[in-house]
Specification:
The chain has one domain: Alkaline Phosphatase, subunit A (3-Layer(aba) Sandwich), CATH 3.40.720.10. Helix content is about 30%, strand content about 15%. The chain has 16 helices and 18 strands. Helix 3 runs parallel beside helix 13, helix 6 runs parallel beside helix 8 and helix 8 runs parallel beside helix 13. The relative contact order is 0.18.
Length: about 550
């Protein structure tokens, strides 16, 4: 009996000690084993050469750069050539050919959306206990309410449904149609008229972070309007006083740079808010563009993908190689450049794996690359489909170091090299990086943003192809994919100057077979004719989920 009491006493003492440890241990200790907050930031139409960490000093992006230099720079990261396909790939983990989203973008009066049978990333995360929010651009359908964000896994949405809008009046022009496109969940946000979109979305993101119960994991999807051009009457909308501060001779490029600078400041404010809320240490932050930049006046814009070839909506590297990074304290050896292949479809299984023991997604094209990113291991991805669009007769695929392009877009008009390079602009680490909000927050977590480290990483992430100006580009064998397929060794020739198709017919045959196999699994594009009932003038001059209503209901 005495021995039993003594045993009970020891157990009781141990229990008390364990409880004291549990109650007194800081939250941060347990954060490493908890589900991370996920902040996914998408820039719209940002070019490869429009961030400082890729070698140009023309557009200061200190907050984005600070995340890049203390995270992992994804230097062989691929998106799709244009907006809606990229966003569908991100949300589903599937190539656009497998969801019918491979041909162009969703139009405002098109009666379709990302197919409803597809399960989206926020829906997976909700099942894991995440609170899910979207701020900014959607562009995956709103014909009926079932296609809109708050019916597809997001608890809240402040932003817009179409592909672009004016940053001040928040109206969207498509063909001859014009109407307001700014929503607070399903309601029209008339009250935000006149407020700059980037500022509106940033305030909302910070508000969501500040009000979040940090004991629950958060998924915040932040789809910027920047740096996409606005409506034709004001294609590069930004305050003139910001434009005047930028020292770029070319006027449109200067306006573009100002838009990008405001977006960079937004990134800094989000990082700062996460730190103040004690969420930064246990966050995964992804920053990515949705496609290559529209350079040299494409889409009335002034991006730069230098020294890559092509622009947005082409299958050359300038259209599909995206500026991207991942930041997290869960990354081993942070502060490195990854040259391993990674595709936008990989985010869904990768983030699910980072949030749970296994990825729940089945029958997708994305590969779980969390270990490859976090532990600097070899990538599982050997094949990347850039797209197959049979309606345009254009397709491209990469297998290991080889890339094949068959056909092209715009009759080849945008298949060349477009500057500016921006390499002649100074990049002063002390003035560019050290004083920005993101760098200050990251340094307080112990991140290395020393001058030597930054310059080393920047040099590693800068592509050198021997190009000084667009006029000096020469091709060993001209590439005209309208006449015959072009073949490139992308690792050795990322700027696609050397067409090797005639030298390696066996490789051309193998990659052609790979394209054929992939195309055999494709479903037809889901594009539908423009529906006149989507005209905003019929719906109080707003872009509306017109498929849910009869016209008589609104009159």
């Amino acid at each position: 009996m005495r021995r039993t009491r003594m045993h009970f006493g020891r157990v009781k003492s141990c229990f008390v000690i364990v409880m004291i440890i549990v109650l007194c241990t800081p939250k941060a200790t347990f954060a490493e084993s908890s589900k991370p907050h996920i902040i996914f930031i998408v820039a719209d139409d940002l070019g490869w050469n429009d961030v400082g960490f890729h070698g140009s000093g023309q557009i200061p992006t200190p907050n984005i750069d600070a995340l890049a230099y203390s995270g992992v720079i994804l230097n062989r990261y691929y998106v799709t050539p244009i907006c809606t396909p990229s966003r569908s790939a991100l949300m589903t983990g599937k190539y656009p050919i497998h969801t019918g989203m491979q041909h162009g973008v969703l139009k405002g009066a098109e009666p379709r959306g990302l197919p409803l049978q597809e399960k989206l990333l926020p829906q997976y995360l909700q099942e894991l206990g995440y609170r899910t929010h979207i701020v900014g651009k959607w562009h995956l359908g709103f014909y009926k309410k079932e296609y809109t964000p708050t019916h597809r896994g997001f608890e809240s949405h402040l932003g817009y449904w179409t592909g672009r809008h004016d940053y001040y009046d928040h109206t969207a022009v498509e063909q001859d149609y014009w109407g307001l496109d700014m929503r607070r969940n399903m309601d029209t946000a008339w009250d935000l008229h006149g407020q700059y979109s980037t500022d509106v979305f940033t305030k909302e993101a910070v508000k969501l972070i500040n009000s979040h119960n940090e004991s629950q994991p958060m998924f915040l999807y932040f789809g910027h309007a920047a740096v996409h051009s606005g409506n034709p009457y004001n294609p590069l909308p930004v305050a003139d006083e910001l434009v005047d501060k930028i020292k770029i001779p070319e006027y449109k490029r200067r306006r573009y740079a100002a838009i990008a600078s405001v977006m960079d400041s937004s990134v800094g404010k989000v990082v700062e808010a996460l730190e103040k809320k004690n969420m930064l240490r246990d966050s995964i932050i992804v920053f990515t563009t949705d496609n290559g930049g529209p350079a040299a006046g494409f889409n009335l814009n002034a991006a730069s993908n230098w020294p890559l070839r092509g622009v947005k909506d082409t299958l050359f590297e300038g259209g599909v190689r995206g500026a991207g990074l991942i930041w997290s304290t869960r990354l081993s050896r942070p502060g490195r450049v990854s040259n391993r292949m990674f595709h936008i479809v990989d985010w869904l299984p990768t983030l699910l794996r980072a949030s749970s023991a296994t990825s729940q997604a089945k029958d997708i094209d994305g590969l779980d690359s969390w270990e490859a990113l976090a532990r600097d291991q070899e990538s599982l991805r050997r094949v990347t489909l850039h797209n197959i669009d049979d309606l345009r007769g254009a397709a491209a695929v990469a297998v290991d170091d080889w890339k094949l392009i068959k056909g092209t877009t715009y009759g080849g008009k945008w298949d060349q090299w477009y500057g500016p390079s921006g390499r002649e602009y100074p990049y002063d680490v002390a003035s560019v990086i050290e004083g920005c909000p993101a760098a200050k927050a990251l340094k307080r977590l112990g991140m290395d943003l020393s001058r030597s480290k930054v310059l080393e990483l920047r040099a590693s992430a800068t592509l050198e192809c021997g190009l000084v100006q667009t006029a000096d580009v020469t091709e060993s064998e001209p590439c005209n994919p309208l006449k015959s397929p072009c073949l490139f060794n992308i690792r050795q020739d990322p700027c696609e100057r050397h067409n090797l198709a005639s030298q390696h017919p066996d490789v051309v045959k193998n990659l052609t077979n790979e394209l054929s196999k992939l195309n055999a699994t494709a479903i037809p594009p889901g594009n539908l004719p423009w529906n006149s009932r989507g005209d905003p003038s019929l719906w109080e001059h707003t872009w509306n989920n017109f498929g849910d209503y009869e016209l008589e209901e609104i009159k």
